[in-house]
Design goal:
The complex is a heterodimer of chains A (about 110) and B (about 120).
Chain A (H helix, E strand, L loop, with lengths): L4 E3 L2 E5 L4 E6 L4 E9 L5 E8 L4 E4 L2 E6 L4 E6 L8 E9 L7 E2 L3 E6 L1
Parallel strand pairs in A: 2-11
Antiparallel strand pairs in A: 1-3, 3-8, 4-5, 4-9, 6-7, 7-8, 9-10, 9-11
Chain B lengths: L4 E3 L2 E4 L5 E6 L6 E7 L6 E7 L2 E5 L6 E5 L5 E5 L8 E8 L4 H5 L2 E2 L3 E5 L1
Classes of the chains: A mainly beta (about 110), B mainly beta (about 120).
């Protein structure tokens, strides 16, 4: 079974609105990463947050991590049609090599 | 700076056949990981190669094997193909030994395999 689970499975919003995606995981992690995938092609790394961090920002992206609840959220502010994609969270377990364990993803559609 | 490249982009095989997929890592990277992504699912880790050896493996049968060459490029071989092997196969590279670089994996565009 996969480590992470994203919520919601699908999200549809208008341009300019904010999009929030959540990720829950089961075991202790070294770090958690968010990736974007357009049209079933390669994944693009968005942001990494380590287990001792609580919040990180990158441009219009804001990621939070709550290790007590084993959950993370990705916020995309002022969304654009070009943000339409699938978003995946991936965890790296403590003590392991850099093996990414992905959730099933959130499919985001941003309408003009 | 060349990113991760994979070949071929698409492939159609029949059950029982064997397939080889290829990956060239991002320039300067020495670690290659392979993932399988079924339609509508997240990628699943197959294995990782470093210094020409498989050092970590996911929950995949021995029909899945790989190789890493001295130039860090890698191959994924799948024998006795099953219908369920139809998926997008993704290669990712990273740089061992440097904390930040090691943690960030760069993905190729993938090879879409269809088994009939």
């Amino acid at each position: 079974s996969q480590q992470g689970e994203e919520d919601p499975q699908a999200l549809s919003i208008q341009e300019g609105e904010n999009a929030t995606m959540n990720c829950s995981y089961k075991t202790s992690i070294n770090n958690l990463q968010w990736y974007r995938q357009n049209s079933g092609r390669g994944l693009v790394h968005l942001i990494l947050i380590r287990s001792n961090e609580r919040e990180k920002h990158s441009g219009r992206l804001r990621v939070t991590l709550d290790t007590s609840k084993k959950s993370s959220s990705l916020l995309i502010t002022a969304s654009r049609a070009a943000d339409t994609a699938s978003y995946f969270c991936a965890t790296v377990l403590s003590g392991g090599y850099n093996k990414l364990i992905f959730g099933a993803g959130t499919r985001l559609a941003v309408h003009p | 700076d060349a990113g991760v490249t994979q070949s071929p982009t698409h492939l159609i095989k029949t059950r029982g056949q064997q397939v080889t997929l290829r990956c060239s890592p991002k320039s300067g990277h020495d670690t290659v990981s392979w993932y399988q992504q079924a339609l509508g699912q997240g990628p699943q880790f197959i294995f990782q190669y470093y210094e020409e050896e498989e050092r970590q493996r996911g929950n995949f049968p021995d029909r899945f094997s790989g190789h890493q060459f001295p130039n860090y490029s890698s191959e994924l071989n799948v024998n006795a193909l099953l219908l369920g092997d139809s998926a997008l196969y993704l290669c990712a590279s990273s740089l061992e030994g440097v904390l930040g670089a090691r943690e960030t994996q760069y993905f190729g565009p993938g090879t879409r395999l269809l088994v009939l």
